[in-house]
Design goal:
It is a single chain. This protein is 49% helix and 10% strand. It is α+β, with helices and mostly antiparallel strands. Helix 6 packs across helix 9 and helix 11 crosses helix 12. The chain is globular. The protein has one domain. The longest helix is centred in the last third of the chain and has 22 residues. Pfam families: Peptidase_M78. It comes from Jeotgalibaca dankookensis. InterPro entries: IrrE_HExxH.
């Protein structure tokens, strides 16, 4: 898919991509333009399921990824990966195989109507792994052989991308990016944010709302609620995206002074 849009980015020796905020902004803009250019012009909810299944050509499978919902999603790259899932009807664990190019979504996100925003963001987060981290996760065909098969709670059991609630819900907090996982999760979350609220339509939306960074706290809260409604994202995701927009605008204005 990256070959299709002509976007190439470098990788470190460990195959973690080197992608800045502006790089991911450019990447997502190119993908959105190729998938459906109207989304760049009109603020509207992104059809996440259609994008994943028909553009990325990944399957979406809804299962219980854990007993306590400690995992929200998982992107599977290799058929050889062996993935534990929880069976609530038996209070037991079983294993999935032959799921290459599959995004596994915790079923409880669809079972509870108030989880729709989190479901959409989790799916796009996993799509971010699929687009940006294929090289990292696919470099070993069977990582399972390196670890004890009984230790199914180990994060190192399979080398495939997993979303935990803390990674999805706190992506806007300031945190040091130190480990491989820090960088991969940051990139996946940034990808999801820009895909769901692409820069061009987001800027147009704010213009139509006569938004100004100097607006009152109440006006800002109302704008955030409107963003949430228009793009079908959580208030937290909307607030973080607005903060990123403000920071970028401030940087652009500073550059223009020189």
């Amino acid at each position: 898919m990256l070959d299709k849009i002509g976007y190439v980015f470098p990788h470190k020796k460990d195959n973690v991509p080197v992608l800045s905020l502006s790089n991911i902004e450019d990447l997502t803009s190119m993908i959105v333009a190729d998938y459906n250019s109207e989304l760049l012009e009109t603020p509207t909810p992104f059809d996440v399921d259609d994008f994943i299944e028909f553009y990325l050509e990944y399957n979406i499978e809804e299962v219980h990824l854990s007993k306590n919902q400690c995992y929200l999603g998982r992107c599977v790259f290799n058929d050889s990966d062996v993935i534990p899932i929880y069976l609530p009807e038996k209070d037991d664990v079983t294993w999935l195989t032959n799921r290459s190019k599959t995004i596994l979504l915790d079923a409880r996100l669809s079972e509870q109507p108030n989880m729709n925003h989190l479901r959409r963001f989790t799916l796009m987060h996993e799509a971010g792994h699929a687009v940006q981290h294929q090289k990292y996760y696919s470099d070993t065909q069977n990582q399972l052989a390196l670890f004890d098969v009984d230790d199914y709670t180990s994060e190192k059991l399979n080398k495939n991308a997993s979303s935990r609630p803390e990674n999805v819900l706190t992506f806007g907090e300031r945190r040091r990016l130190v480990t491989e996982e820090d960088w991969l999760e940051y990139q996946a979350n940034t990808f999801a944010s820009y895909m769901l609220m692409n820069k061009r339509s987001f800027s147009k939306f704010l213009e139509n709302q006569s938004y100004s960074k100097s607006c009152s706290r109440l006006q800002r809260l109302l704008i955030i609620q409107e963003i949430s409604s228009v793009y079908q994202v959580s208030n937290d995701a909307a607030a973080i995206r607005l903060s990123i927009h403000d920071k970028q605008l401030e940087n652009e204005q500073q550059v223009s002074l020189f």
